Amino acid sequence: MRVDAAAQSGRKVAVLDFVEPSPQGTRWGLGGTCVNVGCIPKKLMHHTALLGGAIKDAKNYGWDIPLPVHHDWSTMAQAVQSHVKSLNWGHLVQLQDRKVKYMNLKGVFLDKHTVQGESKQGEKTILTAENIVIATGGRPKYPLDIPGAKLGISSDDIFWLQDSPGKTLVIGASYVALECAGFLTGVGLDTSIMVRSIPLRGFDQQMAHLVTDHMASYGTRIFWKCIPIKIEKLDSGKLQVIWKNLESNVEERESFDTVMWAIGRAPETGDLCLDKAGVQINPETGKIIVGANEETSVSHIYAIGDLAEGRPELTPTAIKAGKLLAHRLFGNSTELMNYDNVATTVFTPLEYGCVGLSEEEAVQQYGEDNIEVYHAYYKPLEFTIAERDATQCYIKMVCLREGDQRILGLHFIGPNAGEVIQGFALGIKCNATYTQLSSTIGIHPTCAEDVNKLNITKRSGLDPTVTA
Ligand code: NA7
């Protein structure tokens, strides 16, 4: 939450932050998931992998680099971890500057205005507040029914490993799974993913399959339609994973140095004693039920971020929602958070950025006859000399079919997808139309210009490959 925003209004503000170590004992500092075990270390490790690709490309561009090159995990880990620690420190300083009292305590509700904070040493502090914001986020799930599951690590651990995880199996097919498997492959590790159903549930499925197609061609092994059954530690120290192939119904096994669970995240609401404050949760998801103004079932208690029901599990939405809440509470504002058309990017080796509706959602909401899908397979200029395969470089724009064709969703797979989509997200937020987009002149030569040049519809059945 933007506690600093609340403090700036002159109110007395305290923030309780306490990291429960992961089952593997990993702990970290102030700043939450994004800073410590999410976006920041993930993007830096993704960049590490991209650099490896650039080194290979460099040869064709005339750089005399002896191949193969070797990547040293410990050097990367130290660099990433010290950057994260500098961010922890920066957050602490910012809180002090804004006169926010930071308390390294784990909070539980005693009643609707009282929270008890407990330190690592067990010392208790009672705090009372007029307004309370819950923003405890979520933590990776572990399966309850798989013997040996605790031998595996999660995304809470991968970024803090001092030594290379070696041959790794990532279980799950969410963006967390694909991103981690992507950078592990990229730094040269033998990496596999186990997918029980579909990749990237909730995302456009044509795009999701292009992402996994690229990963497979890039060296990540994908075990499709497989579910883990058991993990055993062998005398060699390796982990033997036994799984069932749901298509052949056959049990298979293989040993790995590391198994990483990426099977979703659970909201951190269980230990908060929310019942004592009367805060309602959805018993199925464990998430806190909130209104449009982030208010829970108790009028002065708010919930923001991953633990709030129905909210995207994304850092920037939580930050913005916190800021707006502070402005509403203390700054005479009435502006509510608008959760529509939030852009996001999956940082797989070939990145996937999107904003707005998937093709499936657009069909469901408007009917197939009422949408027009423009698409293109394009080749980034940089790929040509490097002789990179551009098979999965693809753009899809979903529009309304009538009139000027309002853009409902934009999907882009290719280099720097986040940078590309961020700009177009403004247009889509402003209800841009296909007509307006095509009248915008592209910047040559970029990948993003191929978005402006989209002109082949899926309905036409014409070849969408960009040739010039
Ligand atoms: P998600 O999106 O909840 O994804 C969890 C993934 O793990 C998904 O691929 C699941 O497959 C898979 N899964 C779940 N349980 C198992 C077991 N037991 N075995 C194998 N595979 C399993 O999780 P994330 O935390 O990564 O993402 C959270 C949100 O952030 C997400 O909703 C986005 O909006 C942003 P399934 O598809 O259920 O078959």
From TrEMBL:
Top EC class for this record: oxidoreductase
Domain Pyridine nucleotide-disulphide oxidoreductase dimerisation: 342-453
Pfam families reported for this sequence: Pyr_redox_2, Pyr_redox_dim
Keyword Disulfide bond (UniProt): yes
Entry's transmembrane regions: none
SUPFAM superfamilies: FAD/NAD(P)-binding domain (SSF51905), FAD/NAD-linked reductases, dimerisation (C-terminal) domain (SSF55424)
GO terms under cellular component: cytosol; mitochondrion
GO-annotated molecular function: flavin adenine dinucleotide binding; glutathione-disulfide reductase (NADPH) activity; thioredoxin-disulfide reductase (NADPH) activity
Keyword terms, alphabetized: Disulfide bond, FAD, Flavoprotein, NADP, Oxidoreductase, Redox-active center, Selenocysteine
FAD/NAD(P)-binding domain mapped to chain residues: 6-322
EC number: 1.8.1.9
Gene3D superfamilies according to UniProt: 3.30.390.30, FAD/NAD(P)-binding domain
Single GO biological process annotation from the record: cell redox homeostasis
Known cofactor(s): FAD
Family per similarity comment: Belongs to the class-I pyridine nucleotide-disulfide oxidoreductase family.
Name of the protein in its database record: thioredoxin-disulfide reductase (NADPH)
Species classification: Eukaryota, Metazoa, Chordata, Craniata, Vertebrata
